Amino acid sequence: MLRTTTRPGFWCECWTRHLDDEQPPTLFGSYDAYTEVEANSWVSTILRTISPALDADTSQEAWGQLHDHRVNTRRALIRRVPWTVSVRHTRTLITWTVSPVTYLRLAYRRNSELPACAHNFKPRRH
To answer: Which domain of life is it from (predicted)?
Structure first.
C-alpha cells in the first residue's frame, strides 16, 4: 500500500505583461522550491540573468527592492506568506511571485514499466 506524504514548499513564477495592449500576462518561467532560501535565490538568479537587458534605473530599482527588502522577504517566506515583487522596463511589467504550497509526493517508478497493480484496472465499457 502506498503511503501518502506531503512536503511544504514554494511555487515560484515570473510573469511579463506588455502595458501597451490588453493581452493577458505571459508566464516567463516557474520553479518549485522546497525552502524559503531556495525560493528567494530563484528570484535573484532570474533577476541577475535579465538585468543586463534592463535599463540602468530599472535594474537598480529591482536590485534595491530585492536587497533592501531581503529581511522582510525572508520573514514572509518563513511565515509562509505569499510574496510578490515587480519591476517595469520600458512598456513591460515583470512580476515575480512566490506562493507557499504543499507538494504531494508521487509514486516512484524505477523504470518505464507500470506497477503490476496497474493491470488490475480495466476500462469501463459503455
So the answer is: Bacteria
3-state secondary structure at position 125: coil
Task: Report residue 82 CA to chain centroid gap.
Answer: 11
Q: What is the dihedral of CA 71, 100, 78, 30, to 10 degrees?
A: -50
Q: Which residue has the cell 525572508?
A: 74
Residue 46 CA to residue 16 CA, distance in Å, equals: 13
User: Does the model's pTM come out above 0.90?
Assistant: no
Burial of 96 (0-12, 13-18, 19+ CB in 10 A): buried
Looking at every residue in the chain, the average pLDDT score rounds to 81
Half-sphere exposure of 87 (CA within 13 A, CB side): 22
Separation CA 35–CA 39 (nearest Å): 6
